[in-house]
Known about the structure:
34% helix
Amino acid sequence: xxxxxxxxxxxxxxxxxxxxxxxxxxxxxxxxxxxxxxxxxxxxxxxxxxxxxxxxxxxxxxxxxxxxxxxxxxxxxxxxxxxxxxxxxxxxxxxxxxxxxxxxxxxxxxxxxxxxxxxxxxxxxxxxxxxxxxxxxxxxxxxxxxxxxxxxxxxxxxxxxxxxxxxxxxxxxxxxxxxxxxxxxxxxxxxxxxxxxxxxxxxxxxxxxxxxxxxxxxxxxxxxxxxxxxxxxxxxxxxxxxxxxxxxxxxxxxxxxxxxxxxxxxxxxxxxxxxxxxxxxxxxxxxxxxxxxxxxxxxxxxxxxxxxxxxxxxxxxxxxxxxxxxxxxxxxxxxxxxxxxxxxxxxxxxxxxxxxxxxxxxxxxxxxxxxxxxxxxxxxxxxxxxxxxxxxxxxxxxxxxxxxxxxxxxxxxxxxxxxxxxxxxxxxxxxxxxxxxxxxxxxx
Length: 444
């Protein structure tokens, strides 16, 4: 019988990555590792909705209206009006709204993490997506946020990357007060403008940044040269201070910034050598950063975008609450890291499903016997499939092999047996006591 139904040819959507089952299983394990590590340091999870009021998202400014995806039903009487809600483009604005809304119900300092997708309407390219996972952790307080947290966040992030074997990486840490204090000491009137230009250094180079400082901000050539020279300072320890002092620039804000950056760098000695650097080229162009700033790179791919970043801010919720809430946070670009390492063949995938044991349906065995075996093994913590019909054993074994299932269980009423499909060994087994030979009893 023919059909006139139109067939829509499936095709990938640019900027919206999706993984095969075996790849997704690895990504899920990554998420579990990240979550466990965040919680090991006392961070609690929040999970705001994927959408926010457009007014809330636009409150951050900086042309965010060009990045957000509005949400509207295709039909439903909403007409052609502008959408009132939109998908969040990062996890910072939802955090700000959440904290303002639940301010009286939260305990401070508020240590939270979020592992969620975000959506951003930008041109897709390597490392930049329209839909992506971010993993954020922030500490907010009603008074001063201790520098302890500025120093602790890089340790947490490195611990995660080490467990995920995302190495080698480099962490670049600066302090906005160093930049602002230095530029103020030089007599630069538009400090924020100078920082925004400096933030382009790794994209356009020193010569172009110098030209922009002279042409756009009308700085004297020697002032522009000293501003760019500051950004060349990069040390694996606190020796950056000596090099900054050599310029002879003086300001109280500069002294404060140097002291704060030294504190963070001293604490970072807990991270292996060659990973963390005091890098005075790191500016983070956003206006809301006021102290420590972080950027992380995959050392093997220096031209690839930053894979984690963040910093300290004075007031996250100013647009929602008449209450100053300073904080410090870092964000790990999970999709950015995962997609790159996957493309480079750096991620080993295994089975395409989480099943550990396939219970075989034997032609001469009651189905209930197979189902009971599956129930017993699941109660003991194993992931188990019971094959759905009593087909030839060879067919069922091929099914297990294709999916990467390690063990095939034969539930014979007289004597259960289990076969290790990797080694080919088959032996008697009791579903109430069995465990894989390479698995400790404590894991069952």
